[in-house]
Amino acid sequence: MLIESRPATDPEIAALVTAQQRELREADGGLDGQVTVTHDDIRYLAVVVDGRAVACGGLQSLDATTGEVKRMYVRPAHRGRGIARQLVAALEELAFQQGHCVVCLETGTYLPAAIALYRSCGYEPIPVYGQYVDNPYSVCFAKRLPVAA
Fold it and tell me: Which residues belong to any copy of the N-acetyltransferase domain (predicted)?
């Protein structure tokens, strides 16, 4: 397994984000009809297994001290192998390298596996923020990153 940076224009990242958005629409009962594609202001990481990207996640800077995890997705056939946990750690390292001391994220109340993952990685609930404020299905989390010695 390899975790590598990929541009937003990478076709495998686009395919993973499209699959993530499709799965989210199915999970929330089609409540969010908006399809979101990749964004240039998100730094994407891909998890590559046997030469194929099987997972992705992104980091978007909200401000000088805060990064937001975006577009976390692991293809169903590769779940349960610890890939998401390693990807979260890699995104936290990227945030640290970019000078962020806090990482936050949003997920849906209808995604208990995602909530369990983030809690087990040390994320704590925070008030819903930004574009998620009016979404009754959004829950947000944050984690303070360790300070370099």
Answer: 3-146
